[in-house]
Each structure stands twice: as structure tokens, then as C-alpha cells.
Design brief:
- Two copies of one chain form a homodimer.
- The first copy, chain A, is an alpha+beta fold and 232 residues long.
- Chain A contains six helices and ten strands.
- In chain A, the strands form two sheets. In chain A, strands 1, 2, 3, 4, 5, 6 and 7 form a seven-stranded mixed β-sheet that branches. Chain A has a three-stranded antiparallel β-sheet with strand order 8-10-9.
- In chain A, strand 1 and strand 2 form a beta hairpin.
- Chains A and B meet through strand 1, helix 1, strand 5 and strand 6 of A and strand 1, helix 1, strand 5 and strand 6 of B.
- The structure holds a DNA duplex (27 and 27 nucleotides).
Chain lengths: 232, 232
DNA sequence: TCAAAAGTGTTGTTGATACACCCATGA
DNA sequence: TCATGGGTGTATCAACAACACTTTTGA
């Protein structure tokens, strides 16, 4: 073999897939969007949203394409997590899969898409058996979500634009899997000065109603430039 | 197209490469092991240690194989970092590359291998231009190293089995890129009760000599099982 | 009028930081 | 004897955890 000028073609090629771990939050529960797989092997079994990488697109582009094809949504939070490549992970053929974590406010995902793709939101605590190594992917994704959510303000990606403090707390409790003290939580959040209080109240959760807030992205960006670190 | 039973073969395949970001520590400096690339394109240019994934092996196995081929070392710390897939990242042909971070105690890497592969330890602060997106990979790798080193006891992977507290501190200073107070550092480290003090002193660094310590992996494992969190 | 969730402050504890001097030794 | 790096303790401050009662309102 001529070491100096080998042709890449002597090396094997592989299918590359992208699998999306899609988190949502509703009714106090952290959920995952899964669907029934549309092709063999494992046709009809619960699976993450996935697809194959195409020639002209980057990994990020591919994940974004798959997500928007299957949900109709653009501009959603998406982040690469991990590459899976056990030789026998897909019984049909060798596939390298790169996972992405996506955060979707549940109300933005339409019933129509849900019907069209046989998709369902399931609480992460009651996750059914998924195909291949998809359950491992979710476990790893959940760990990453916890880590990221406690060091960056991504929780807001899972809520409507306007939300209440109790909603936000309930979201963090679901993500972190533990109860939080409401006084400490509120104190901490408001002390970071990232939320804008609105005049309006949301009365859906209680008779008294809770004030709505918005996350101030610009202020956050400024703070970060000055060395600020978000923590919950 | 029959959605129910598509054949994978309708999808494109890609070369998959593994690139190793190899950190070392010597003389108070954090270093990176790079070498002159042995094939076109970019023959003779500085590059990370890399290679192509083979059919039967997992990503981890592939990274481990490449590392052991190029260094002669087994049993070294290795962890997957990130997948790179921009369509034009390799001008010759489309290649998806998965990076791994490796930690090698510098004294374990032999001159012989260094000569054989044209490899060199360079301080991360004075990194030359590397091929393609390898500089990006290193930047990302360094960030991950900082994060991991401050939450898990992996610093020891970069030192000899027996080391002194000042050595350890100097390593952490190099990784974190900041000076640390020696009293606080020592206090914190010893309070975790993970180090075993030996009777011997290392006199290479000073006339007085500093006591040698060993990291107690078993004790650490036990502590972790009880919910212990390492932090520097 | 009452049930149910929203909202509010203080205190104690713990962990992080800042800081200066003596010790042991080989040259 | 002196220059060099090793080794030690305390005081202050900030962040976090624990904790209980009042308010509002629709039914």
C-alpha cells in the first residue's frame, strides 16, 4: 500500500442517520415525542424521529430538516448530543446515528402532524420500549437535558412565550426530577433579572391567578458578555 | 416510493473518520499531540491523529485502535466528544468525523513512536494551524476538558501514578487557565479524602521536596455510589 | 366561607475566597 | 546563609437551604 497517497475509496462507507430526542412539557410532566416507525425493520414499532443524512447537507441541517418535515416547525432549539456506532445496532444494515436534542413547546405541535405521522407525546417516566438503542439515547439525552437546563436558560424553550413562575418551577421540577422550594426558586430566578413581569395574570392554574413573565433574551446576551453564568 | 419498505440502499453512504484530541501535561504546560499527515490531501501538514472507521468496529473501538496504533498505548482515557459533518469540511471527499478526547501521561509516550509518526507535543497555547476544521475541534475539546476536569477526577490521567500536590495544582492551573491559591487547593483536595499520602518525597521540584500521593480509585468509586460529587 | 394556589422574608449553615508566615534543604 | 519551593490556619463573605403564614378569588 502506498501510504503517501491512498485513495479514500479503499475505506468503507456507512449510512449516517440522525435521531431526534424531542422533549416537550405539559401538565406538569416532561414528555417525549415518539412515533410508529414507517419502514422495515421494526415497521410499526415506537421509535424516535429519525432519518438519513443526505449528500449536500451538514449534520445540523439534516436534523433540522427531519424535524421540520415531521413537525412542520422551524426555529426550534436543537443541539447535537452523541454519535452511536455499535456495528450491530441496526440489524438490517450498519448505520451510524447522531442524536440531537430538540425542545418543543407542546402547544406548537399540531394534531394534524401527530395524526399524519402516528406521533405521540409520552411522559418520560412512562417511556415504552423503543427500537434498537433508542432507549439508551433517551437516557443519555435526559442526562444532558438536566445538565444543560441547570446551566443555561433553555427551559424557556419548552414554555409559551409568556409563562408564570409556578409554571416555570414545575417545569424545572420535571426536568430535574426533584421538588424545589418555591420561595427560593422565585428569589433566585428574579434575582438574575432575566424575566420581565407583565401586567396580565394567567388564571388557568388557580383562582387567584399568577402573573405572566417573559424571558428577556437581549438582557441575557448582555449579561453573558459580562461573564454572567445562569444557574438553577 | 413505497414508504412501507424502503431499502436503505436508496440512501447515501459516507466515509466516517475518527479524530483524537490528545492532551498531555508536562513542564507546567497543557499540550496536544499532533503529527504531520501521511496522505493527501494536506500531506505533511499538522493534523490531529485520525483514521477511518472500519466495518466491524464500533466508534469507540475505532478510536481506541487508532490511538493504540499511533502511540502504542492501551488503557488510556478516551471519551467521545462531537461529530463534525459540514459537507465541504474535507475538500477531497465527504467525510463525517467523530472526535475523541484522550488523556496521556506524557512520559508514557515514547520517542520511538514520535519519530515513527512525525508526532510532536505542542503547548495548546501555541497551537499551529491544523488542517481542515481540526483547530475548531481542539477549541471545543479544550472547553470540554475544562468542564470535565472540574467535575470528575480525570486530572490524574495526565500525571504519573504518584504525584505531588504542587504538580496536581499546576496541572489544574494549566487546564483551567487560571492561578489557584495553594492553601485552598490543598485543603479542598485533601478534604475529599481521595488521595493516599506516601512516605516518599519527590525532590525534583524543590530542595525541600514534596510528598507523593496516589489517587484512590476504589475509594472514589465508593463515594460516587453514595452520591459524592467531585469538584475542583 | 372555604379550598386552592400565589405570593412573600428571615435565619442558620456551609462552602468559597482571601491572605502571610515558617520550614526544609542543597548549593 | 540564603534562595527556592513546600507546607500550614483563620476570618470574612456569599450562596444555599430550611421554614410558615397571608392574600386572592371563584365556586
Amino acid at each position: 500500500m502506498n501510504l503517501a497517497k491512498p485513495n479514500y475509496s479503499e475505506h468503507k462507507k456507512f449510512h449516517v442517520a440522525l435521531d431526534c430526542i424531542i422533549f416537550g412539557f405539559d401538565n406538569g410532566e416532561l414528555k417525549l415525542l415518539i412515533h410508529k416507525r414507517k419502514f422495515e425493520p421494526f415497521l410499526g414499532y415506537w421509535s424516535l424521529f429519525g432519518g438519513f443524512l443526505k449528500s449536500g447537507e451538514s449534520l445540523d441541517d439534516g436534523a433540522r430538516r427531519i424535524l421540520s418535515e415531521l413537525t412542520g416547525l422551524e426555529d426550534i432549539y436543537l443541539e447535537q448530543l452523541f454519535a452511536y456506532g455499535e456495528p450491530d445496532r441496526d440489524p438490517a444494515q450498519r448505520v451510524i446515528s447522531v442524536t440531537y436534542m430538540a425542545l418543543i413547546p407542546e402547544h406548537r405541535y399540531s394534531q394534524e402532524y401527530s395524526r399524519r405521522y402516528g406521533a405521540m407525546w409520552v411522559p418520560v417516566k412512562e417511556l415504552p420500549d423503543l427500537i434498537m438503542d433508542h432507549n439508551d439515547m433517551v437516557v443519555k439525552g435526559l442526562k444532558r437535558l438536566r445538565k444543560i437546563a441547570s446551566t443555561q436558560p433553555i427551559g424557556f424553550e419548552l414554555l409559551p412565550n409568556e409563562f408564570t413562575i409556578p409554571q416555570l418551577q414545575s417545569l424545572y421540577e420535571a426536568i430535574l426530577g426533584e421538588q424545589l422550594d418555591k420561595r427560593n426558586f422565585r428569589k433566585k430566578l428574579l434575582s438574575m433579572d432575566l424575566l420581565v413581569k407583565l401586567d396580565e395574570k394567567d388564571k388557568s392554574g388557580s383562582r387567584k391567578g399568577a402573573f405572566l413573565y417573559k424571558f428577556d433574551q437581549k438582557k441575557y446576551n448582555k449579561l453573558v458578555n459580562n461573564g454572567f453564568n445562569f444557574t438553577i
